[in-house]
Design brief:
Distance between the termini: 37 Å
Helix content: under 10%
Strand content: over 45%
Order of helices and strands: EEEEEEEEEEE
Shape: globular
Length: 117
């Protein structure tokens, strides 16, 4: 199982970015997929989750600003981030759960998002 995230970068406060994450597996079907973020020395926290059926859940700190979406045909999820603030600066990781365990939850390599104020 591999998860490849992209789309991070440097943006000014109030700006927008779109993250993408594509999963590949020849054996397992992706169930829930999510975005997490982590700052140095801090815990990894869930930002948004989307089920295979398209139901979404958001952390309170991003509600109304971020939108998660999914393309099951490509095993790809997206995170549209708008009105970015300096506190959104973090490494963003995508994750995937499966219908069986093993395998356990998988994480991608992360993409850096930096918001300048």
């Amino acid at each position: 199982v591999q998860l490849q995230a992209s789309g991070g970068g440097l943006v000014q406060a109030g700006g927008s970015l779109r993250l993408s994450c594509t999963g590949s597996s020849t054996v397992f079907t992706f169930k829930d997929m999510a975005w997490y973020r982590q700052v140095p020395g801090g815990p990894r926290e869930q930002v948004a989750l989307i089920t295979r059926a398209g139901a979404t859940h958001y952390a309170d700190f991003v509600k109304g600003r971020f939108i998660i979406s999914r393309d099951n045909t490509r095993n790809t999820i997206y995170l549209e981030m708008s009105d970015l603030q300096s506190e959104d600066t973090a490494v963003y990781y995508c994750s995937a759960d499966f219908y069986t365990n093993p395998p356990p939850r998988a994480f991608g390599q992360g993409t850096q998002v930096t918001v300048s104020s």
